[in-house]
Amino acid sequence: xxxxxxxxxxxxxxxxxxxxxxxxxxxxxxxxxxxxxxxxxxxxxxxxxxxxxxxxxxxxxxxxxxxxxxxxxxxxxxxxxxxxxxxxxxxxxxxxxxxxxxxxxxxxxxxxxxxxxxxxxxxxxxxxxxxxxxxxxxxxxxxxxxxxxxxxxxxxxxxxxxxxx
Amino acid sequence: xxxxxxxxxxxxxxxxxxxxxxxxxxxxxxxxxxxxxxxxxxxxxxxxxxxxxxxxxxxxxxxxxxxxxxxxxxxxxxxxxxxxxxxxxxxxxxxxxxxxxxxxxxxxxxxxxx
Lengths: 165, 114
What we know:
A: flat; B: 6 helices
């Protein structure tokens, strides 16, 4: 696209010629995994924390923790999912530029919202403004993913060779 | 005062992302493997800044309602894009900036409840 070249400066000349980061490439796979894991972590920690009894002196007794074991399990599972998502994220960053990958994390806001209105035990309700918000975020993500690739941009001093596969 | 802490959290998260990127680059370039990956200094910096950010964030949440605090965090999308422009020379083209703006407005809309 001629317009893109004018807008993006030097990097764009290579863009068309060399690569296009396919939506289905390995980099986006890791970004996607990271988003899904972070969403699961949020939901699981939210559920766990809100079902954990208030911590007071009773927390000193074993019975307290046996009673709260399911909630604890969810909080712990959430933290584990968080750590896993960080590993996926670091993998993703070796392939996808940060300024392109980071905005995609906002899909997790959308997924958390969708889950919290559709799962009855979170007691959240549908609202028009939030629905518009979801549409805007999704449009933003589509705009970013569909814009021309630049991870082999030689203007970037940290450009990495593409790993095969 | 809580605005001040929210800005600090934004700053720490942004720095944390940059350190993560640096760690990922290091892993890739130095072919670090196994435990070495987790001894990488950029990885440890990232853990530290993100951890500190999380602790401050949890405290912010005690005073500020989530639907006000969370949208403010979306400013991070702008900060990270600017920072990766200046530090890593990642050029965003107009479509990516448009996407970032749409996302920021969208996150704010998700926060307000009409």
